[in-house]
Prior knowledge:
alpha/beta
Amino acid sequence: MTGEDFKSANIILGEPNLIRDILPELPSLKWVQSTWAGVETLLGPGLRQDYHLTNVRGVFGRLMTEYVIGYLLFIERLMLQKIQAQQISRWDNTPPGTLYGKTLGLLGVGSIGSEIAKTAHHFGMNVLGFTLGSESSQYVDRYFHPPYENEFASLVDYLVVVLPITKKTYHLVDKDFLGSLPGGAILINVGRGSLIDDQALITSAKSGHLKACILDVFQEEPLSEGHPFWKIPNLFITYHTAALSYPEDIAPVFIKNYLLFFNDQPLLNNVNFLKGY
Length: 277
């Protein structure tokens, strides 16, 4: 493709962080299909909003569910402790915990949250959901909305953060929110790093108020070598790999939208530039 061909492109498929840098070079742009669910890098101040932006929400529910349930079982069933005992030839018959009867709190109940809620019910868990307004999932037993985030937090054994990042959700999980969680709660963040106040999380984890933190997303990626997260023993890091964009998952979404685009029909998964999702 020549430089002129590139400038005449009206459709772009790709990662938002790469697309952002070339937006000024695409005068004919009409539609961007993101290969990610999160598109906040394309929503910053001063960036173009004169095109259709679609994401791939609805694709990652299965992968995120595997991740969340896998890590909850990892913690509750004392898997790391049992492995460490085996390595030193020590018989460790400490009784493990169970997911059954525990309360899972979903901070955000979109397509991913709903999929997690559905699977949680298979384990006999209670599911609470906190959203900015919607109550669309049949698998959530009780919903909460602003300004009742701290009441929501006080009732959960496991907090799973899956909200998109917007002005309203930035640092929603702050000192007060974390302090409202019951002692021994487990926190998993698969949403965005900026949803959580890092310093408040560090304090809560180090004090033992949180039993464990599992973080897949961070305000700073990659983490610097000197970041405090590396040294917290009950904090587990997974390097933004909870749900990757696999071609076999992304291609069908693009193909559907491609056909809609050329038939002048509304696209799927349109992002509202004002709302940020």
